[in-house]
Amino acid sequence: MTHRETRGDVAQDPLTALLKPIFMGSDFYHVAKQCGDWLLSHEHAVAPSFHLVTEGQCRLAWHDGGEEHLQAGDLAFFPGDAPHQLTPQGVSTDTPTQVVPLRSSRPGVGLICGHFRFVHDVPPAWFGALPRIVRIPRQARGQTFQHAVEAFAEELSNGDAPGHAPVTNALANALLILMLRHCLETRLLDQRHLMAFLDTPVSRALKLLHEDPRCDWTLHELARAVGLSRSSFSERFHRVVGMTVVRYQGRLRMILADQALANGESIVGAMLASGYRSESTFRKAYKRIRGVPPSRLKTHATE
């Protein structure tokens, strides 16, 4: 294959070119049927995640107000930080809670929940162009997409089958690609926007930032590393990514800080995990970017 042909393939499929170097896999944190009166809280959903409703219906309430209604067959994709709670619909509050296998004949809400892993636990910047939830009902999925969803649900219902883990991981990875393909087909994502992220100097700068988000890159150092003047690089980065280098690096660091706090680290531990050397600087940066002090997430993590 010639170099020109390779470039042509990239132009036709930017999704593969952008995901392949950074996507690492999937994990599942809930595979069961919820019966009775129940509540599932997703306080620290800092990684891109998903819910698949296999049976019944439930209410999704956002922490900042508003709600969504999910029903059997719905696939919900959360590209970024999206704290929310799930509760049943049409169930008396005095009905005992019970968690049973997905295959159980008991009436309830079947849920498969998981998240996607990326290098350094940092999702790609272009996920920020998507809404906080992408809801894909059964009727909106094409044949290939629907077959993949059905195979995924069937395999996860069969938890003791030989080779279960690699099969479910491969199917979940396919779901991510199919969900993003759906976003392109429905214009939630613009192909031209993805192509912009393949801009060589910007993609090299993003690679450097993602390789070590804790590193104190200056605008001048990044510009020199990608072979551009400071002003040209600054303009080009902002045009492609939609924010300044400083803001983008700050957001990367806050993802690391959120993960540290959610895992029980102290404020100082989160400061070190995200590359800051001063606690006061870290607290100010966290409040500026997240809108709340880091102690707020720390409190939720310990409840």
UniProtKB/TrEMBL annotation:
Keywords: DNA-binding, Transcription, Transcription regulation. Pfam families: Cupin_6 (PF12852), HTH_18 (PF12833). GO terms for molecular function: DNA-binding transcription factor activity; sequence-specific DNA binding. Residues 203-300 form the HTH araC/xylS-type domain. InterPro entries: AraC_lig, AraC_XylS_family_regulators, Homeodomain-like_sf, HTH_AraC, RmlC-like_jellyroll, RmlC_Cupin_sf. The keyword Transcription regulation applies. It comes from the Bacteria. SMART domains: HTH_ARAC. This is AraC family transcriptional regulator. It comes from Chromohalobacter marismortui.
